[in-house]
Specification:
By secondary structure, this protein is an alpha/beta fold. It folds into 3 domains: 318 residues, ABC transporter type 1, transmembrane domain (ABC transporter transmembrane region fold), CATH 1.20.1560; 177 residues, P-loop containing nucleotide triphosphate hydrolases (Rossmann fold), CATH 3.40.50.300; 69 residues, Rossmann fold, CATH 3.40.50.300. Helices cover 63% and strands 10% of the residues. It contains 19 helices and 10 strands. The protein has a 6-stranded mixed beta sheet with strand order 6-7-8-3-9-10, with helices on both faces. Strands 2-1-4-5 form a 4-stranded antiparallel beta sheet, covered by helices on one side. Helix 5 runs antiparallel to helix 10, helix 7 runs antiparallel to helix 9 and helix 9 packs antiparallel against helix 10. The radius of gyration is 36 Å and the shape is elongated. The termini are far apart. Bound molecules: adenosine-5'-triphosphate (ATP) and magnesium ion (MG). Magnesium ion binds next to helix 11.
C-alpha cells in the first residue's frame, strides 16, 4: 500500500505528537478503559439470560440492570475523556504545524514565490492542513479504538466458542482486501481534488487582487463563467469520491450483516445441539454488532490516513524547499552592521540559466555618494538592485559590501541596513503610522513625523481626519499612487538605512515634488549610499555615479556632465526629455 512505502510523508508528524506524548498516552489509556466498560455490558447480559432459567429473583434482575447502566455510564465518561485528550492534542499539533509552516514560508526566497501561485500556497495552508488535523485527531482516536475493540472482544468471543468466532470473522479477510483496494483509489482521487482546489483558490485570489482590472475590462461575466466551471469540476470530483466512499461503506455494512447471519445460523444450531447457551449466543450477536462501527471506522480511518498522507506530501513539498538565499557556513556572525561601500565585480545574473538579464556589471561606490541606474524598460535595473539586497545570488562575479562578499554578511544584518522602496509599493491594511513603522521594533511618533516630512507626505497625512491613524489599504482609504510611493519612502527612511534604494519610487510624483524630495534626502545623505533607479534623467542628473543599462549591460557610466560630453545614449535621452519638459511647460 502507498502509505506503507518509506519514507512515509506522515512520519513528519511524529515530532509534533511526541511533544504532547503524555496527553496522548492518557488518551490511549482512556480508549482502553472505554473498551473495558464496553465489553462488560454484554457479558452481564449474557449471564443474566442464562440465569433466567434457574433461580433468579427480580431483585437480582434489577441489580443486573443497574450494573449494566453503570457500565454504560463508565463507558460514556471515558469516551468523553478520550475526546478531551486526543482531539485536543490534534488541535495543539495543528497549531504548531501551522506556525512552523508559516515561519518556513516567510523564509523562502523570492524566486520561490515567483514560481508558485499564492492560491496554491494558501490551499496547502488551509485545506491540506485540515486533512492532517483529521488524521491527528479522529484518525488516531478511531484507529486506537478499533484496535482496542478487536483486542477486547475477539479474545472473549474465542474463549466462549472459538468455532463460532471463526465463522463470525469469516468476512474479515474480504473486508481487509476491499479496504486495501479502495483506499488506494481514494488516495489517488483525493490528491487530484486537492490540486484542483489549489487552482480554484488561485483563481479566486487573483481575481480579488485584480478586481479593478477585471471590472475595467468588463470581464465579470467571463470570470464568473470560468469560476463556475472550475467550481463544478471541483464538485464533480468530490461527488465521484463520495460515491465511491458510499459504495465502500455499503459493502462494509453488507459484510457485517453477513457476519450476523452466520452467527445466528451457526450459533443457533450450536444452541439446539446444546453446545452453546442462549446467553452466550446473545453475547455473540451483541459483540458482532459492536464490531460494526469499528469496522466501518476502519475504512474511514484508512481514508483519513490516505488523505492525510496526500496532504502531508503537499505540505512537505513546501517544508522541503530550502531557501535559496540563506546564511551559509561562510557567513560571518561578527558582522553587525553595514556601511555602504558597494562594489560589483563582473556580475552576471539571469532568472533562467540560459537567459542572462545582467551581463558583466562592474562599478564601485561609497557612502555619501548617489548611484543612479537608468536605462530602457526591461534593461535590468530592478534586477540589479535586487542583487544588492541579496534577493537573488549572482550567477557569476562578486558583489562586495564594505569589502566583504555579500554571502559573508548575515542576511538579517544586510537587509536591516538597507532601506528599499520597491517599484510597486505595497501597503498593508493598517494605519499609516504602522505602515511607515513596518519593520522597526519601536517607532516614536516624532520619528514617524520626521520621515514623513522628509518624504514630503507629512502634509497629506496631517490633512486626513485621523492623521497618522488613518487606515489604508483594503479596509481603509485608498492613497493615490504618488502618496503610496511617498509613504513607502518614509517607511524606508525610518530604518535609518546605510543603503537607501529607490526603485523608480518617484515615478508617480511630479518633477517639482521629485526635486523637493531629492533635496530633502540630501540633507541626511552624507553617511549613506543612495541608489536611485529612474527613467527620468531630471531625477538623477545630480548623482555622483550614473550607470546606463541597455539589454542588461552597462553601456555608459560616469557623471551627468561626463555622459553629456560622451554624447551617447544618455545625452540623446536627456535632450529628448528636456524637449518634452519644455513642451509640457508651454502647454
Ligand atoms: N522574476 C523574474 N523571472 C524571470 N524574468 C524576470 C523576472 N523579473 C524580471 N525578469 C526579466 O528580466 C529583465 C529585466 O527586468 P527588470 O525588472 O530588472 O527591468 P527594469 O530595468 O527594472 O525594467 P523597468 O524599467 O520596466 O522597471 C526583463 O526582461 C524581465 O522580463
Ligand atoms: Mg524595474
Amino acid at each position: 500500500m502507498d502509505i506503507l512505502n518509506t519514507p512515509n510523508p506522515l512520519a513528519r508528524l511524529f515530532p509534533y505528537l511526541l511533544t504532547y506524548r503524555n496527553k496522548l498516552l492518557l488518551g490511549l489509556l482512556f480508549v482502553l478503559l472505554t473498551n473495558l466498560f464496553n465489553v462488560l455490558g454484554p457479558l452481564l447480559i449474557g449471564s443474566a439470560i442464562d440465569r433466567l432459567k434457574s433461580d433468579f429473583s427480580s431483585a437480582q434482575l434489577v441489580s443486573y440492570g443497574l450494573l449494566i447502566i453503570l457500565m454504560a455510564a463508565g463507558r460514556g465518561l471515558f469516551l468523553f475523556m478520550v475526546r478531551q485528550t486526543i482531539i485536543v492534542v490534534s488541535r495543539d499539533c495543528e497549531q504548531d504545524i501551522r506556525n512552523d509552516l508559516y515561519q518556513h514560508i516567510q523564509r523562502l526566497s523570492t524566486r520561490y514565490y515567483k514560481t508558485r501561485s499564492t492560491g496554491d500556497i494558501l490551499a496547502r495552508n488551509t485545506n491540506d492542513l485540515n486533512a492532517i488535523r483529521s488524521f491527528l485527531g479522529p484518525g488516531i482516536m478511531y484507529s486506537a479504538n478499533t484496535l482496542a475493540t478487536f483486542l477486547f472482544i475477539i479474545p472473549i468471543m474465542a474463549y466462549v466458542n472459538w468455532e463460532l468466532t471463526l465463522v463470525a470473522l469469516l468476512p474479515l479477510p474480504v473486508m481487509s482486501y476491499m479496504v486495501f483496494r479502495m483506499g488506494k483509489s481514494i488516495h489517488h482521487q483525493y490528491t487530484h481534488i486537492q490540486s484542483h482546489y489549489s487552482s480554484l483558490t488561485t483563481r479566486v485570489q487573483e481575481n480579488l487582487s485584480g478586481i479593478r482590472v477585471v471590472k475595467a475590462y468588463v470581464r465579470e461575466a467571463w470570470e464568473i463563467m470560468t469560476f463556475t466551471r472550475l467550481n463544478r469540476t471541483y464538485m464533480l470530483k468530490n461527488l465521484r469520491l463520495v460515491r465511491y466512499q458510499a459504495l465502500f461503506y455499503s459493502l462494509m455494512s453488507l459484510l457485517i450483516g453477513l457476519s450476523v447471519v452466520l452467527v445466528v445460523w451457526y450459533g443457533g444450531s450450536l444452541v439446539i445441539a446444546g453446545k452453546l447457551t442462549l446467553g452466550e449466543m446473545t453475547q455473540f450477536v451483541i459483540f458482532v454488532g459492536m464490531l460494526i462501527w469499528p469496522m466501518i471506522a476502519l475504512g474511514w480511518v484508512i481514508n483519513i490516513i490516505q488523505q492525510a498522507s496526500a496532504s502531508q506530501k503537499r505540505i512537505n513539498e513546501i517544508l522541503d524547499e530550502v531557501p535559496e538565499v540563506r546564511d551559509t557556513p561562510q557567513t560571518d556572525p561578527e558582522i553587525q552592521s553595514v556601511k555602504g561601500f558597494l562594489t560589483f565585480k563582473s556580475v552576471s545574473f539571469g532568472y533562467q540559466p540560459d537567459r542572462p538579464v545582467l551581463k558583466d556589471i562592474s562599478f564601485s561606490v561609497t557612502p555619501g555618494q548617489v548611484l543612479a541606474v537608468t536605462g530602457e524598460t526591461g534593461s535590468g535595473k530592478s534586477t540589479l538592485v535586487n542583487l544588492v539586497m541579496r534577493l537573488f545570488d549572482p550567477d557569476s562575479g562578486t558583489i562586495l559590501m564594505d569589502g566583504r562578499p555579500l554571502r559573508e554578511i548575515p542576511l538579517k544584518v544586510l537587509r536591516k541596513h538597507i532601506g528599499y522602496v520597491p517599484q510597486d509599493t505595497f501597503l498593508f491594511s493598517d494605519t499609516i503610522a504602522n505602515n511607515i513603522g513596518f519593520g522597526v521594533e519601536s517607532a516614536g511618533e516624532e520619528e514617524i513625523r520626521l520621515v514623513a516630512d522628509l518624504a514630503s507626505i507629512r502634509e497629506n497625512i496631517e490633512d486626513f481626519p485621523q492623521r497618522y491613524d488613518t487606515f489604508v489599504g483594503e479596509r481603509g482609504i485608498t492613497l493615490s499612487g504618488g502618496q503610496k510611493q511617498r509613504t513607502a519612502i518614509a517607511r524606508a527612511l525610518l530604518r535609518k538605512p546605510s543603503v537607501l534604494i529607490l526603485d523608480d519610487s518617484l515615478s508617480a510624483v511630479d518633477t517639482q515634488t521629485e526635486d523637493l524630495i531629492l533635496n530633502r534626502l540630501k540633507e541626511h545623505a552624507e553617511s549613506r549610499l543612495t541608489i536611485i533607479v529612474s527613467h527620468r534623467i531630471s531625477a538623477i542628473r545630480n548623482a555622483t555615479h550614473i550607470l546606463v543599462l541597455s539589454g542588461g549591460e552597462v553601456v555608459e557610466q560616469g557623471t551627468h556632465s561626463e555622459l553629456l560630453a560622451a554624447n551617447g545614449l544618455y545625452a540623446a535621452t536627456w535632450e529628448k526629455q528636456k524637449l518634452e519638459d519644455e513642451l509640457k511647460a508651454i502647454t
